[in-house]
Amino acid sequence: GAVVSQHPSWVICKSGTSVKIECRSLDFQATTMFWYRQFPKQSLMLMATSNEGSKATYEQGVEKDKFLINHASLTLSTLTVTSAHPEDSSFYICSASEELAETYNEQFFGPGTRLTVL
Amino acid sequence: LAKTTQPISMDSYEGQEVNITCSHNNIATNDYITWYQQFPSQGPRFIIQGYKTKVTNEVASLFIPADRKSSTLSLPRVSLSDTAVYYCLVGDQGNTDKLIFGTGTRLQVFP
Fold first, then answer.
1. Quick check: B44 contacting A, CB < 8 Å?
2. B53: distance to nearest CA of chain A, Å?
């Protein structure tokens, strides 16, 4: 099946630094990738949708200058949390959809990245 | 967007059948119903998808009545490893592929 990886799986950083999270589709070309954030005991919240070669579409309330998304190829999207603060500590999950997927609108999720900002 | 409503939590014992119902009164004609499973500190995993009537795979069954305003995920003979959060999602009415997750149902299976 389609596999999506994320790197790193966890990261701890100091307040004010920037953190980059990578999302890769390992065995398929992802026309669209999505970024979610999940706080403890809560549901996933969609942050943005990115298509290869174009600017990401951010959901309402998500600061595009703080959460920089780059989708440079059909297998890689990156999320950079700029000037991270403790309130940005969360579980970040990416997903990818395959243009030729047999199941309508199925997304393949990465294992997530746990970000802790001190 | 079609909003979904699910029970917040459910308890069960090993070997029992578990049915989780999801309400989606505003489902659109072109929308599909999809269920995902999420274990702690992992990304969600696709379980099953359907449009109408009944769909069955090796993991679960999905029952959808004729009016499609609700759906029921059925997990036969659950085990401890089925303890997870289960999300019911309805396809975006537009042409985008984004998924909007609701609260999900936290299923706890006891021995």
1. yes
2. 17
Q: In what order do the strands lie in the sheet with B33-38?
A: B9-13, B105-110, B84-90, B33-38, B45-50
Contact B51, B33 (CB under 8 A): yes
Q: Measure the CA–CA gap between B39 and A75, rounded to whole angstroms.
A: 25
- Residue B7 near chain A (CB below 8 Å): no
A108 touches chain B (CB under 8 A): yes
**For A3, nearest residue in chain B (alpha carbons):** B45
Smallest CA–CA separation between B15 and chain A, in Å?
26
| pLDDT tens-digit readout, B32-71 | 899 999 999 999 999 999 999 899 999 999 999 999 999 9
Q: Quick count: other Cβ atoms within 10 Å of Cβ A76? A: 15
Task: Express each pLDDT in A68-92 by its tens digit.
Answer: 999 889 899 999 999 999 999 999 9
Can you count the helices (H) and strands (E) in chain B? 0, 9
pLDDT of residue A99: 64
Could you give phi then psi for residue A112, rounded to 5 degrees?
A: 95, 155
